[in-house]
Design brief:
- The protein is of the alpha+beta class.
- It folds into two domains: 90-116 and 220-360, no CATH class; 118-218, Pdz3 Domain (Roll).
- The chain contains ten helices and twelve strands.
- A hairpin with a 2-residue loop joins strand 1 (33-49) and strand 2 (52-67).
- The radius of gyration is 25 Å and the shape is elongated.
- It starts with a helix and ends with a helix.
- The mean pLDDT is 83.
Length: 360
């Protein structure tokens, strides 16, 4: 039950922030907002304030902002209607939703770096046969405090330094054992693996494993946290679009890389056990992914509406009502099909073995 509540809170925040982006941009552009709804289906709560009706609906899997005159069939030429605004203003209204999700993701990372987060120390938990660390005499319980005179305080810092080196390089480690510090040279050994995007990578490794029982809280200053949050946001954006491109080109299977609401719920149940920092990091990742996915130039998505605006700008007039409706319906059909496919894969990942057992 707690997992469901956490999942709904995360989903609710992501949707509310997205729709608020559209809402505030429309108000600033002088467009009347007729409805602001979170969820779909029967309305649980409804309040009218000013020109806007606010509602909370039963099915918490989305939301919408209804703008006056936001489709050509009902457009009457009033100054407060969506289609009375220039394409640039309408672009700002559409773009604001994904932008607010993007900012939320960055803010989550900024807060994590500033408030502190638990991470593994550089204490050696185990050694791998055939690698340089074991050959050089390192032992479980040793703590690496510097690499080539560069101090490292966490496992992620240690990994960052090592991954910058080439295979077959030799690194000088400063190691703490039983309260005494000593130096040792370790030869890196090359190993190939598949990264998150399914690409083969070759890296040099020491051949050590962390001590998963030894953690330390790491936090940074206000400005340093801002920079690190921004950097993580940009890196994640690059990885997300690369991943999407590799899915489109068939280099990564969608069934192995995409997750729908059900999949996100299962992930939430695992992340929730790791504490508030892990949940905040998860929400940041989902928020940025949602923003970037929404900007894809595909009908129904915000990116599709931006594409229509670009076409209007080039042609000097909007697409006909019939043409836009046909394109939108085709896009909606593809989205629904994709949603069902991803949901099916989420179910099979979670319950595939049980379902197979029942069918035997």
């Amino acid at each position: 039950m707690l997992t469901l509540i956490i999942f709904l809170v995360i989903l609710g925040v992501l949707i509310a922030v997205h729709e608020f982006g559209h809402f505030i941009a429309a108000r600033r552009a002088g467009v009347r907002v007729e409805k602001f709804a979170l969820g779909f289906g029967p309305r649980l709560i409804k309040r009218k304030r000013g020109e806007t009706e606010y509602s909370l609906c039963l099915v918490p899997l989305g939301g919408f902002v209804k703008l006056a005159g936001d489709n050509l069939e009902e457009y009457k030429g009033k100054s407060y209607e969506y289609f009375s605004k220039a394409p640039g203003k309408r672009f700002q209204i559409i773009f604001a939703g994904p932008l607010f999700n993007y900012i939320l993701g960055f803010f989550c990372f900024w807060v994590i770096f500033f408030s502190g987060y638990p991470t593994l120390t550089t204490k050696v938990g185990g050694l791998l046969d055939g690698f340089g660390a074991k050959a050089a005499g390192l032992k479980a319980g040793d703590k690496i405090i510097a690499i080539d005179n560069r101090k490292v305080a966490s496992w992620e810092e240690l990994q960052g330094v090592i991954l910058d080196r080439r295979a077959e390089d030799s690194v000088r480690l400063s190691v703490l054992r039983d309260g005494e510090e000593f130096m040792v040279d370790v030869l890196l050994k090359e190993k190939q693996f598949d990264d998150a995007l399914g690409q083969k990578q070759k890296v040099g490794l020491l051949g050590i494993e962390p001590d998963f029982t030894d953690t330390v809280s790491v936090r940074y200053g206000f400005l340093k946290s801002f920079y690190m949050g921004l950097n993580k946001t940009l890196v994640l954006s690059q990885i997300t679009y690369k991943g999407l491109w590799r899915m489109v080109t068939g280099k990564i299977a969608i069934r192995d890389s995409a997750a729908g609401p059900l999949g996100i719920y299962f992930i939430t149940s695992k992340v929730a056990r790791q504490g508030i920092t892990a949940l905040l990091n998860f929400m940041g990742i989902i928020s940025i992914s949602l923003a970037l996915f929404n900007l894809l130039p595909f009908p129904v998505l915000d990116g599709g509406h931006i594409l229509f605006l670009a076409i209007e700008k080039i042609r000097g007039r909007a697409l006909s009502i019939k043409a836009e409706r046909i394109i939108t319906q085709m896009g909606l059909a593809v989205i629904i099909t994709l949603f069902l496919f991803i949901t099916y894969n989420d179910i099979m990942r979670a319950f595939g073995d049980k379902i197979t057992g029942l069918l035997r």
